[in-house]
């Protein structure tokens, strides 16, 4: 087993956004640790991820993506719920299995509505969104 350590820094520094990302009592971070089998140490906006290389890379991408999702919308910061963590982990595993289909869903297509942003989580909705665009 290949153990990897990666340090990431989330910018811009905003304590309210970091609180939303980490959840109450760091529950969101603990959920990521449990599901991916890694260790996450945090101090302010600096995160140190330790574990299997594939899982560390996925966790870093998930943290960055979810931090972007906490950006203020209409003056309010969106709270990251455990369901969003679960979906982000599921999306990362799908992306690992089929790297050639990345442009079809996920980061490539985002539909903006009045209530927020819609992102396909799996290949099938991604293909449907591609067909309509």
Instruction: State the low-pLDDT regions, or none.
Output: 97-107
CA(first)-CA(last) distance: 42 Å
Number of domains: 2
CATH class of the largest domain: Alpha Beta
Q: Please state the second-level CATH architecture of the largest domain.
A: 2-Layer Sandwich
Overall pLDDT: 83
Fraction of helical residues: 40-55%
Over all CA atoms, what is the radius of gyration?
15 Å
Structural class: alpha+beta
Largest sheet: 3 strands, antiparallel
User: Could you state the CATH homologous superfamily of the largest domain?
Assistant: K Homology domain, type 1
Strand content: 15-25%
CATH topology of the largest domain: Ribosomal Protein S8, Chain: A, domain 1
Organism: Kluyvera cryocrescens (Kluyvera citrophila)
GO molecular function: ATP binding
InterPro entries: PhoH2-like
Family: Belongs to the PhoH family.
Outline the structure in words:
- By secondary structure, this protein is α+β, with helices and mostly antiparallel strands.
- It has two domains: 3-97, Ribosomal Protein S8, Chain: A, domain 1 (2-Layer Sandwich), CATH 3.30.1370.10; 99-133, no CATH class.
- The protein is 46% helix and 19% strand.
- The protein contains five helices and five strands.
- It has helices spanning 15-22, 27-36, 53-69, 82-97, 123-132; strands spanning 3-9, 39-43, 46-52, 111-113, 116-118.
- It has a three-stranded antiparallel β-sheet with strand order 1-3-2.
- A hairpin with a 2-residue loop joins strand 2 and strand 3.
- The chain is globular.
- The N and C termini lie far apart (42 Å).
- It comes from Kluyvera cryocrescens (Kluyvera citrophila).
- Belongs to the PhoH family.
- GO terms for molecular function: ATP binding.
């Amino acid at each position: 087993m290949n153990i990897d350590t990666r340090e990431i820094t989330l910018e811009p520094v905003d304590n309210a956004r970091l609180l939303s990302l980490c959840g109450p009592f760091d529950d969101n971070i603990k959920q990521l640790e449990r599901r991916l089998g890694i260790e996450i140490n945090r101090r302010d906006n600096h995160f140190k991820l330790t574990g299997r290389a594939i899982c560390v890379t996925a966790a870093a991408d998930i943290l960055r993506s979810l931090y972007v999702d906490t950006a203020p919308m209409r003056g309010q910061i969106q709270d990251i719920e455990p369901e969003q963590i679960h979906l982000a982990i599921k999306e990362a595993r799908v992306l690992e299995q089929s790297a050639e289909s990345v442009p079809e869903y996920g980061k490539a297509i985002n539909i903006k509505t009045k209530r927020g942003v819609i992102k396909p989580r799996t290949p099938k909705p991604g293909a449907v969104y591609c067909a309509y665009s």
